[in-house]
Amino acid sequence: MSKLLEARALCAFYGATQVLFGFDLSIEEGGITTLLGANGAGKTTTLRALCGMVRTTGDIRFDGKAIRGRATEDIVRLGIAHVPQGRGTFSRQTVEENLEIGAMTRSGRAAIDADIERVYGYFPRLMERRRQQAGTLSGGEQQMLAVGRAMMLRPRLMLLDEPSFGLAPLIVEELFGILRTLNQTEKVSMLVVEQNAALALDLAEEAYLIETGELVTSGPARQLRDDENIRRAYLGY
Amino acid sequence: MELFLHQVLAGLATGGIYACMALAVVMIYQAIDHLNFAQGEMAMFSTFIAWQLIQWGLPYWLAFGATIAISFVAGVAIERVVLKPLHNAPVLSHVVAFIALLAILNSAAGFIWDYTIKSFPTPFGNGPLFEQGLMSKHDGGMIAVTLLMLAFLYLFFRHTRIGLAMRAAAANPESARLAGIRVGWMTALGWGMAAAIGSVAGMLIAPVVFLEPNMMLSILLYGFAGAVVGGLTSPGGAVLGGFLVGIVENLAGTYIPVVGREMKLTIALFIIVAVLCVKPSGLFGRPIVTRV
User: Fold this and answer.
1) pTM value?
2) For the packed helices B183-209 and B39-55, what is the interaxial angle rounded to 10 degrees?
3) Every domain of chain B and the residues it spans
4) Which residues of A touch B161 (CB under 8 A)?
5) pLDDT digit string, tens, across residues B180-223
6) Are residues A60 and B124 in contact, defined by beta-carbon separation less than 8 angstroms?
7) Which of A137, A145, A218, B285 makes the best surface tag, with the fewest CB within 10 Å?
């Protein structure tokens, strides 16, 4: 397998405050990688750094192309879909308009319409609410809409920021099942940031564990899950 | 009763002016989420450009089209040069920039074209539209053009992808960027369209109020009133609001003895305050539903 995304010596800053302190990260083509860590470890910042949403130093390559320092819109257009924390819903627009927005960089009406139907296939609940203002959806439905919107980009890589946040266990199970299907049938590589380590380690093949902006350890997800010390010290289960 | 009907018709005629301006106000509010206080002066400046082109011998409709194009480009340029550097600044900085623009455009127009009142031609003719003479042909034409622009905007925003991209960029810029939308250019496009619509409003209003650098000061206020009455989120509501303000102003001038010509402007302010107190989203604005 080849590397789809590679970051070296990744540092990120909010104003003068440094948040990430130079670690390396790579994502396998076609795989699911998870990024774990406690509150404030820098997980969200890492995703934002990859998308050019914060000031960053180091080297970031997507499919071999250097992308650090480029505008967020341009990075997204290369095929990186970011499902942000808080879901980024366009609350005044309808569900279907939200999906249309996700496909804004594409052309070809027929393909876009087919993809909207495909999203409804994965998330039938969105189909029922297609004409409804997206702000009125439940948290779980909005998370599904956010994933659906990301799918509309036809991405090669999906960055997911705490997809399980604030959702009921049953909904989480459904959502993660769909993520797994997307990865397998649509060949979308994923980087999943999670606080729910058990859940994420089940989903992913590779895992990174960070603490206060520095790498603690990385390796196959199975290995982190089986390491008693790491589990006790960092993952809390 | 006849007096009442006369006044309503006359109100519709002036309401057309306000509706035109209200439409431009709502347009930019949709794009940038702020009221642009320089909107009126931008429209006035565009009208002067049209006047100059006509003075140079261009036929009316050619000057009309050229002015719309020039205004569009100028609107985009203003956003790129003046407002883009401010895009992370607080609202107050924007307001100050708007007021600076207002003052600069007003003085520049006075400097280039001086403050004498100029007449501006109408393409529709000055005769009465009906036999009773309540509404002139120009008033009728102005209302028709306003409704036409409204229809165009509706189709543009509801049924084109770029219209949806503009709405997305205004509603949630960060999320729009993550969908690959070039948010900065969408805002610039919104400014360009608002400037173009403003220029149409200016060119239609100028034959009625005459052309001079201060022609838009009170009209912008009525435009704001119309936009607030109709709802700042609804172009259709803004046009209707503009007509309502025109009618209310005329009726109040006729039936309420203390409201003479001098007090008419007060009515616009009164309407703004009253609507904001009773129904802040306006008569036709969509109240924004959010889960809490």
Assistant:
1) 0.85
2) 60
3) 2-121+132-278
4) 100, 104
5) 999 999 989 989 998 999 999 999 989 988 899 999 988 888 88
6) no
7) A218
Residues A77, B180: C-beta atoms closer than 8 Å: yes
Confidence at residue B88, expressed as pLDDT on a 0 to 100 scale: 80
Structure tokens at B227: 């936009």
Mean pLDDT for all residues in chain B? 87
List Cβ neighbours of B211 (8 Å cut-off, separation of 6 or more): B47, B48, B51, B117, B118, B119, B120
Q: Min CA distance, B173 vs chain A (Å)? A: 10
According to the CATH classification, is domain B2-121+132-278 in 3.40.50? no
Please tell me the predicted confidence (pLDDT) of residue B89.
84
Q: How far apart are CA A215 and CA A208, in angstroms?
A: 7
**CB contact (8 A) between residue B164 and residue A135:** no
Q: Which of A117-131, A188-202, B67-81, B125-139 has the lowest mean pLDDT?
A: B125-139
CB contacts of A102 in chain B (<8 Å) are 179
Alpha carbon of A136: minimum distance to chain B alpha carbons (Å)? 6
Q: What is the pLDDT of residue A31?
A: 94
Mean pLDDT of the B235-254 span = 88
Q: Which of residues 46-65 of A touch B (CB under 8 A)?
A: 51, 53
Task: Check CB contact of A105 with chain B, cutoff 8 Å.
Answer: yes
Q: What is the residue type of A93?
A: Q
Q: What is the mean pLDDT of each run of 10 residues along chain A (237 residues)?
A: 88 92 93 91 94 94 92 95 92 94 93 95 94 93 95 95 92 93 94 91 94 91 87 75
The tens digit of pLDDT for each residue in B35-47 reads 888 989 999 999 9
* DSSP for residue B79: I
3-class DSSP state of B134? coil
pLDDT at site B132:
67
Residue type, B117: I
Query: What's the DSSP call for residue B289?
Result: P
Instruction: Quickly count: other Cβ atoms within 10 Å of residue B5's Cβ.
Output: 11
Strand, helix or coil for residue B63: helix
Longest dimension (CA), chain A: 53
Residue A76: closest CA among chain B residues belongs to which residue?
B180
- Note whether A93 contacts B164, CB cutoff 8 Å: yes
- Do residues A19 and A42 make contact, with C-beta atoms less than 8 angstroms apart? yes
Question: Is B232 near chain A, with CB under 8 Å?
Answer: no
Predicted ipTM? 0.91
Pairing of β A65-66 and β A55-62:
antiparallel
- In the numeric block, which tokens belong to residue B67? 């002015």
- What are the structural domain ranges in chain A? 3-88+155-235
